């Protein structure tokens, strides 16, 4: 799948479901506000350092971001990295603000999750 199709899908959807794997192998799924981050060529999601999704990703990088539009879905499967570098987090604010028309709340424990897509399921919309 071309990045342009992934960028279009992420750009057109306000919310997504991010699924990670817990320590005991269960799937942990949460509602997120994904956006495309050009400088990292990846889907990005803001989070807090001590969130369950971050804890899961630090142990196991597998992640699936699913976008839903009525009865259609588009799942993007790959690996995720958690970045807590304040400069990188701040750099991502512009991409988030461009999509959502607001800046995320400031927090000392803010991190950004980058999802690199390896394969997809469903059809982008």
TrEMBL record:
<dbReference type="InterPro" id="IPR052019">
    <property type="entry name" value="F420H2_bilvrd_red/Heme_oxyg"/>
</dbReference>
<keyword id="KW-0560">Oxidoreductase</keyword>
<dbReference type="InterPro" id="IPR012349">
    <property type="entry name" value="Split_barrel_FMN-bd"/>
</dbReference>
<dbReference type="GO" id="GO:0016627">
    <property type="term" value="F:oxidoreductase activity, acting on the CH-CH group of donors"/>
</dbReference>
<feature type="domain" description="Pyridoxamine 5'-phosphate oxidase N-terminal">
    <location>
        <begin position="8"/>
        <end position="120"/>
    </location>
</feature>
<dbReference type="GO" id="GO:0070967">
    <property type="term" value="F:coenzyme F420 binding"/>
</dbReference>
<dbReference type="InterPro" id="IPR011576">
    <property type="entry name" value="Pyridox_Oxase_N"/>
</dbReference>
<protein>
    <submittedName>
        <fullName>Pyridoxamine 5'-phosphate oxidase</fullName>
    </submittedName>
</protein>
<dbReference type="Pfam" id="PF01243">
    <property type="entry name" value="PNPOx_N"/>
</dbReference>
<dbReference type="GO" id="GO:0005829">
    <property type="term" value="C:cytosol"/>
</dbReference>
